[in-house]
Recover the amino acids of this structure.
């Protein structure tokens, strides 16, 4: 049967989503692949449909044990023989599953990474055609959700030499993708990266003072719509939910401190539209397939852009206009900074938090900035974010941009943001002297611009995709192909005029 017929027969869909078809063709052709698609983009199809066309079994590794049973039930309901293997099953259930496996009828088997060692013994002698590693960023300490059990997967390519491997994730920057491929032993894997753009989401950032009252006004305007409010702590979820309830809104809390039943219940009534607003920690939403979420509010700032993107991505899956509202507060940044300091991977976490903060403070199109984080560059401003809808004044900053880019090139792309500004301003501090960059031609070429203005300009240039931060190389600044056009091909650069503090204060008072 042809791919499209299978799509219709087993899944009830008439056409493929972007990239699905190419990926499926390559999977069937036996290639190793690295696929990055946003949440809701349809990653599962990339291995579920091929499993029907392959002779052997498809092994799916997924960390989401709680969702495995539902996924398998859904496949079975569609007539696809699938099963799963994880620690939630008792010995009897596992034995039943193994029986099915040996009978050779199964097409797909889902397993948690922790269970792979055990399952591996039972897979001996069973032909495995394809291995799908879902949420593959979990294997990399550079990703944002490292799980030690994933490192066990590194022997896959050697244990199952006939099988090809597809790694899938919604969040992996270029360096993380390279790391995933290396660790899974698929260095030569073909990469597919779907567009991350979600044009139907209006992006907005507001200062976090008086958040509760701001939300109250927002919710009044969006009456009867479904939405999620993300908070940092369980306590905040509870208190926001009860305050909103007191204001007459239909809200409930969701966090890991609730019982399993309570959480299931909140999730279920929310999906059924019997509850409008969920005040949740980031635990909420993983794998939830609700299409009409009209807004996602970040009451607290997320710890990085990957998390932010994933969370706002739960709004507007039906393609209708939806709103992503982020409150930006320095208290949150300080709190998050403490968490990052205490984490195993502090340097990267702090750099990612810094980027999140820059996003919140940006004076350029937010969507451009968001997409540039995923190495995707928009030519035009989006017209659907708070910056685009309330444009700051711009000036021709080609000269400043050339100075900064030239300094990046002349420092051999080995300067961090702070050091680069010091070099541009001709500072004579220890960092500059140690680096030896006082000898380069652009040293002091940007004296006339203040330190803070340089910082804003460079952040804008990062947001415009002219400069990239190499998180995994001490946050050194690198020039992108677009940046090279500015230096060598006469590309012009406009940057936003930086508002004076008193202007900012006046603007905030109006909101
Ligand atoms: P992801 O894992 O990328 O977050 P899923 O695989 O869960 O996304 O797919 C999200 C939703 O899109 C599911 O409800 C799925 O059935 C649906 N879907 C997948 N492929 C298609 C398609 N070609 N046409 C329509 N819907 C699709
Ligand atoms: Zn915009």
């Amino acid at each position: 049967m042809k791919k499209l017929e299978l799509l219709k027969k087993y899944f009830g869909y008439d056409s493929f989503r972007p990239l699905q078809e190419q990926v499926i063709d390559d999977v069937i052709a036996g290639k190793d692949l690295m696929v990055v698609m946003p949440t809701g983009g349809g990653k599962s199809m990339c291995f579920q449909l091929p499993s029907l066309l392959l002779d052997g079994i498809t092994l799916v590794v997924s960390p989401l044990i709680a969702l495995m049973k539902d996924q398998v039930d859904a496949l079975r309901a569609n007539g696809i023989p699938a099963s799963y293997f994880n620690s939630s099953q008792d010995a009897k259930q596992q034995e039943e599953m193994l029986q099915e496996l040996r009978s050779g009828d199964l097409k797909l088997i889902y397993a948690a990474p922790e269970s792979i060692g055990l399952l591996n013994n039972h897979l001996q002698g069973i032909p495995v055609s394809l291995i799908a590693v879902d949420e593959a960023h979990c294997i990399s300490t550079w990703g944002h959700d490292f799980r030690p059990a994933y490192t066990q997967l590194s022997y896959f390519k050697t244990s199952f030499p006939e099988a090809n491997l597809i790694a899938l994730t919604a969040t992996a920057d270029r360096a993380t993708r390279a790391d995933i491929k290396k660790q899974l032993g698929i260095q030569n894997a073909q990469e597919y990266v779907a567009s991350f753009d979600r044009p139907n989401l209006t992006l907005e950032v507001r200062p976090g003072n008086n958040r509760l009252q701001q939300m109250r006004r927002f919710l009044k305007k969006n009456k009867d719509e479904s939405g999620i409010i993300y908070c940092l702590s369980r306590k905040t979820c509870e208190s926001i939910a009860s305050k909103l309830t007191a204001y007459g809104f239909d809200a409930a809390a969701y966090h890991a401190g609730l019982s399993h039943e309570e959480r299931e219940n909140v999730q279920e009534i929310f999906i059924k539209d019997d509850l409008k607003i969920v005040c949740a920690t980031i635990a909420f939403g993983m794998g939830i397939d609700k299409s009409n979420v009209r807004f996602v509010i970040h009451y607290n700032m997320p710890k990085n852009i990957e998390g932010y993107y994933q969370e706002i991505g739960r709004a507007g899956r039906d393609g209708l206009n939806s709103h992503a509202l982020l409150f930006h507060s320095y208290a949150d940044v300080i709190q998050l900074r403490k968490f990052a300091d205490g984490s195993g991977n502090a340097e990267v976490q702090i750099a990612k938090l810094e980027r999140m903060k820059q996003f919140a403070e940006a004076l350029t199109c937010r969507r451009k900035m968001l997409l540039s984080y995923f190495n995707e560059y928009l030519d035009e401003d989006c017209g659907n974010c708070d910056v685009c809808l309330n444009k700051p004044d711009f000036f021709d900053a080609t000269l400043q941009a050339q100075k900064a880019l030239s300094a990046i090139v002349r420092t051999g792309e080995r300067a961090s943001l702070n050091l680069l500004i010091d070099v541009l301003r001709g500072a004579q501090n220890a960092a500059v002297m140690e680096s030896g960059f006082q000898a380069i031609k652009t040293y002091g070429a940007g004296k006339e611009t203040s330190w803070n203005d340089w910082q804003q300009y460079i952040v804008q240039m990062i947001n415009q995709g002219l400069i990239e931060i190499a998180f995994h190389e001490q946050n050194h600044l690198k020039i992108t192909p677009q940046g090279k056009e500015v230096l060598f091909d006469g590309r012009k650069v406009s940057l936003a005029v930086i508002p004076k503090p008193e202007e900012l204060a006046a603007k905030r008072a109006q909101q």
Notes: The first helix runs from residue 3 to 11. The chain has a mean pLDDT of 90. The CA atoms of residues 84 and 205 lie 42 Å apart.
